[in-house]
Description:
alpha/beta, two-stranded parallel ribbon, 9 helices, 9 strands, binds NADP nicotinamide-adenine-dinucleotide phosphate
Amino acid sequence: MEQNDRETERNQEAEDRRRPTALITGATSGIGAAFARRLAAEGYNIILHGRREEKLRALMHELDTPDAGDLDLVLGDLSDRRTIDALAEAGRNREVSLLINNAGYGAGRDFLEDSEANQMGMLAVHCEAVALLCRALIPQMLRAGSGQVINVSSIAGEQSLPKSVMYTATKSFLTRFTESLALELRPLGIVVQALIPGFTHTDFHDKLPEWERERRSKGIIRWQTADHVAAFSLRQLRKKNPRILAVPGFFNKLIFAVPHILPRRLYYAIASKVTD
Ligand SMILES: NC(=O)c1ccc[n+]([C@@H]2O[C@H](COP(=O)([O-])OP(=O)(O)OC[C@H]3O[C@@H](n4cnc5c(N)ncnc54)[C@H](OP(=O)(O)O)[C@@H]3O)[C@@H](O)[C@H]2O)c1
């Protein structure tokens, strides 16, 4: 009996090693959790990361079906180097083949009114953590001859907006970083995508201190579900010639393009009005 148990355990371990492994930062809720649900249903092993432990454990419980792969959890703030080191180690041990740098947050406050930690944290989470995890985990993908990276940026990365000074700037960095990295790695068999969502129903806006606007589609603002965004991203990633910039939805593509086509003065007038 005991021998049978050991045999089953060994078979399970061998099967888990054969499954692809994804690492998702910010998997607690929203877009990260939507990626986790889709990838778990496809049989991926998943390393989930976030800070709200109770919510993450509830998600792991939900994903832990008989057909699911292995689920690991790394907790911690991404502005803390120890969290990045723990993720890098977990990712290397598991030979991650899909890295999703998704964690992020907004401030919704004037640059000078918000705390230094909150504002500078965006540089750490949206820029440094992403670059460090790419450096830690892409080398093994190169050795394997294939791998995929999704960096979750935002249409805000194309905009200049009051109350989003560090958010727009860091997401702008993230989009450019990802685009250049994709060009560098494409000939080497690694697919890199900048996912550029617009307004998405997640916990993101609940966390903003002064965000009381209605969350419904109006004019060119179209709200999407997190699952729609995650599904779009994975579909794009798996195309024969995947786009580097993945912008879900026609209206988001329009908002993405607006600052590049409007005369600057007109754009500034609109940007100041919409954030009033
Ligand atoms: N929702 C939108 O309208 C929208 C639009 C464009 C782009 N995005 C981007 O989409 C990504 C996912 O956000 P979401 O909308 O799904 O929001 P969400 O539901 O609030 O999820 C954000 C995730 O990021 C994690 N996170 C935030 N700050 C962190 C930090 N300092 N250290 C570690 N983890 C941190 C959160 O962890 P805990 O919750 O456990 O603390 C959570 O798991 C973000 O990069 C965001 O900028 C969102």
